[in-house]
Amino acid sequence: MVHYSELGFVNTKDMFKKAFEGGYAVPAYNFNNMEQLQAIITACVNTQSPVILQVSKGARNYANQTLLSLQKSLQHLKI
Prior knowledge:
The chain has helices spanning 12-22, 34-47, 57-73, and strands at residues 28-31, 52-55. It is mainly α.
């Protein structure tokens, strides 16, 4: 089993604590296709902002393994 930290993910408790102490909010975006995901990731990388990605069951079914592969390939971005 892959640990969430190996995919570049962090514990939300730690993320929210850092945001609270830094006085900023963490946005959560729901996306329905790869173009939306790319735009969200690009903006967060460019602004060095944390993000919560939300995806519906329908979008997961549509993206299937492609989405999981993309997530894994983005792990080095430190968002």
